[in-house]
Amino acid sequence: MGFEETFRSIALSVSRTVAFTAHAFLFGCAVILLLVVRPAFAELGDERWIKGRRRLSRRLEGLMQAAMTASAVATFVALALQTALVGEASGGQVDTSAFFSAVDTRFGFVYLMRFPILVGLVVLLVSRVRDWALAGAGDERPSPGRGWWIGWLGLSAALLATSSFAGHASVARPQTVSVVNDLVHLLAGSVWFTGIIVLALVLPDGWRGLTSEYRIQLLTPSVVRFSTVAMVSIGVVGATGVVNSLLDIGHLNDLVDTGYGRTLLIKIAFYCVILALGGVNHYFVRHRLEKARAEGRSDGAQKLFRRTIAAELLVALTIMTLTGLLTGLARTRENAPAAPAGSTSADR
């Protein structure tokens, strides 16, 4: 493999990982707000939490805009690389004809569809997340309408679906089962991943400047609610991941004899680490936080939670990286029709 081909393969994997991570956050954030953050703030009507709501909402607004920008840039890079590949494969130049040939492929067409979806999300979310994300959650502002949430969830889920329609799932058989299973896998994983991001990096904005006794009033209900959400989502990730593996792995020994299989095994190992850390949070840390909150005191469980959530964040980012590596590796079960000329490795 020459330098240019190696560079292109790495660049494609990176662009897909960046895009998927951005899409995961865009979808998961809406779910985590509805199921975890808003209910936790709804219990805190005290005026001291007004600034916390504003800071957290501004942080979410910034992250939403960063995620949409990252998606657009990563998708543009992937399409540019695909265009270069098609131009070289046809023996011609990298020009408009190569671009139109690229978007004629399944990969190119599905990726191109991301841009109108992103435009819809920009119109829906920019300058509104800041004002509406926590509106009505423990304060007197009117809550955003149901249509806003449905639009956010629908458009961000459509972005995630592009990974399924342009990836390994779209060439596996039976195709419908594969695509639906993969999309459920991505949606559940997005909720879990975003929940970790929010609890580890965003939620602290809500209690900045307050004592630990007040912090636990927000941290405890958030951890309790996310503990249940995470348990369900990570269970769905595991079940759908097994189905994905059965559809993508041709033989059991492929798990050790192929790059795809070995990478998948490493990903499974990190999934087991997540199960262990989640168990600690669900069965131990959560109960210590509930006890500390009921007694109106600070507790060492806060420090333990910070350590476990930091470890979960590190493992989550590692899993996202491994997912990106899998996108550039060929699945070992070859039961799909031949890919069109100029197409690249499937994208998970």
Q: Tell me the series of helices and strands, N- to C-terminal.
A: HHHHHHHHHHHH
Structural class: mainly alpha
Count of β-strands? 0
Low-pLDDT runs of 5+ residues are 335-348
Main sheet summary:
none
Overall description:
There is one protein chain. The chain is 76% helix and 0% strand. It has 348 residues and is an all-alpha fold. α1 packs across α9, α8 runs antiparallel to α9 (212-248) and α9 (212-248) runs antiparallel to α11. The longest helix is centred in the first third of the chain and has 40 residues, at 3-42. The protein is globular, with a radius of gyration of 22 Å. It starts with a helix and ends in a 21-residue tail after the last helix.
Keywords:
348 residues; mainly alpha; 12 helices; 76% helix
In short:
The protein is mainly alpha-helical and 348 residues long.
Per-chain topology:
Layout: H1 3-42, H2 50-89, H3 96-103, H4 106-112, H5 114-125, H6 129-132, H7 146-165, H8 175-202, H9 212-248, H10 254-257, H11 259-294, H12 301-327
Helix pairs in contact: 1-2, 1-7, 1-8, 1-9, 1-12, 2-3, 2-5, 5-7, 7-8, 8-9, 8-12, 9-11, 11-12
